[in-house]
Structure formats: structure tokens, C-alpha cells
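Need the bound structure for tryptophan, inputs here:
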Amino acid sequence: MESKQKVILTGDRPTGRLHIGHYVGSLRRRVELQNSGEFDKIFIMIADAQALTDNADNPEKVRQNIIEVALDYMSAGIDPQKSNILIQSQIAELTELCFYYMNLVTVPRLERNPTVKSEIKMRNFTGVPVGFYTYPISQAADITAFQATTVPAGEDQEPMLEQTREIVRSFNFTYGDTLVEPKILLPENEACLRLPGTDGQAKMSKSLGNCIYLSDPSDEVKKKVMSMYTDPLHLQVSDPGHLEGNTVFTYLDAFCKDEHFERYCPDYANLQEMKDHYTRGGLGDVKVKKFLLAVLEEALEPMRVKRAELEKDIPYVVDVLKKGTEAAREVASQTLRDVKNAMKINYFEDPDWVKEQEEKYKG
Ligand code: TRP
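Answer from helper R.:
Posting the output first, comments after.
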């Protein structure tokens, strides 16, 4: 279905604090889109129900991280006046939609989802929970419930979007034009797409202890940056350095703009000049790290200030979630009504059904 409105839906599982990988991968973009004024509606979802699909034994972890993630969102610039922040589990319509979509997806199709496949490998399930297996369908419900046109997310979410588009097409083909096909909006460059951990590992992950969190205090960020993985062959300042796999430069690719050089490192006009000097030899890692620290702090310090303010008024944060969830539920319940109408399973609202049945049993 052609959407008349431009709508954003995206979200995160509340299983821990958000880190700078989340920030450059999606959160920063959400804030820009929110402030662009180009969108009619914005929904940012705390996906607690999805988080439970592989945390059935630990609902407390999910419960504890809801406010944590809300604080991360709001301190990073998500503005409740412009965006609805909602809690997935409090919108029952999403599970109902999911139940009907399940009939449009085959088991082999689910088995092919590369993100789910690699997640299963990473987790030590004794058996894969059905809920986990089918979470791409639940995610299709999340996206379509709000008639989302645009989903800003990392590339690991592309298979979910692909699956969602297939469900939308199948639904619209079978029951008539009802649902909107969404598009993913990927991060702007390679570094933002997959920000490595501070140790140079492919991914930031809590268990590897290689994350810089949005809520880390500044001394913590400094410690982490100054001990970051760089180029193991760059032993002396005069040695030529390598950029490939050099985490400090990857972070600069994700964070730095030309104007940062004016402010914090006027020896260079832009990142390319700094990189050239590094590869030529004569530029030490400490200087680059100090520059990166300044660039990161420029983004992180205002978040800390905002967070400290919000932490003083948690009932306000809860109220934001409550209002965002209520607004979201209204939209989702309209979509569910449309879906049930299209499937003709709205018996009590359908006078034709009653009449038809009456006729059928007339002698
Ligand atoms: N799968 C996403 C994650 O792991 C969270 C999520 C749930 C989501 N529903 C969504 C993202 C809908 C985008 C759209 O972070």
C-alpha cells in the first residue's frame, strides 16, 4: 500500500546500556531525522518482548534496563515532544498481529534468516525457543503496526526488513491492500555500520568488555580511549602506521568532522591529512587518541548533563514512556482493526456475516 504519511519505527532490545556503536549505527540518525521535521510520526520502541525471546530465565534483566534505555534515548536527543518512546510488551495488538502473520511465513523461510542463524550460533541454547525463532515475524508486526515507511537501523536488521516486506506483499496480495512496505535506512558509512570494540574485535559487546557506553563518566572514557587497539606494528612515532583495522581511526571515521580539527587539532585540516601523516610515519598514537577523546567528549558530555537532569526525575521519564505507549497503541489498534477487516475476521462488526449466516440456515 502507498503510504500518505512518512513514519519512522525503530527500536532496541533493553538488555543493557546503549554504547557508541548504537549511537553511530542508528541513534544519532534518529535524532537528526526527528529534528528534520520531515516525518509525520516517529515511534522509538523499547523491544522488551523481543528481549525476552532469549532471556526467558531473566526477565529481571529486561525489567531493569527499560529506564536505562529510555535515559540513553532522551539524553542522546530523542525529544518526547517529537517522538513517541514506547514499551513493546504494553501493546497487546503487536502480538495479535504477529499471530496472523505467522500463517504467511514458512518454517524454511525462517530458517534462512542470516541474522537469526548467527545469533543462534552465538547463544548457547539447548534448544532454540520458538519465540526466538519467530522474532522476525514479531518484528514485522512492530514495523507494520505503525505503518512505518522508514526504519533507521544497522545492517544486521536488513533480513528483518526483507522478511517484513515479504509479509506485507503476501498479506496485501491475499487480503487486499492494507499494509505499508518499509525501507531500511542504513548508517552513512562503513565505520558507522559496524563500529568495532575498543580492543579491535569486530563488535562491541558487554561480555567482551570492549564498549564505550553513552553513560560512561569522562574518566572512564579517557581510560578506554587511551588503551584502545591501534596498529601493533607502529612501535615508534617515526614508524609508518597502518589504518587497516586501526580502531582509533575507525572511530574517527564514524565521529569526526572537519570542524573538529579547527577546535582540537589545528595541525591538520581534515581526517585525510591526519591519516596521511600517520601512514607516512611521524605521528604518534597518543596524539591521535587525544584528538579522538576530544571528539567523543564533544558528543558525550552534553548527554551526561542531560542524563543527570533526567535521573533526578524518573517519574517524568516513566510518564514519557506511558504517554508514548498510549499514542502508539492507538495507531497499532487501528492497524489491527484494518487487518482483521481485510481478513474478514471481524464477525461482530460485520453485518454481512450475520446476514449471510442467517440466509444460509433459513429452511
Ligand atoms: N531487533 C532489534 C534489535 O535487536 C530491535 C527491534 C525490535 C527493532 N523490533 C524492531 C528494530 C523493529 C527495528 C524495527 O536491536
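Comments: The first strand starts at residue 7 and ends at 12. Residues 9-13, 45, 47, 50, 139, 142-143, 151, 153, 157 surround tryptophan (CB under 6 Å).
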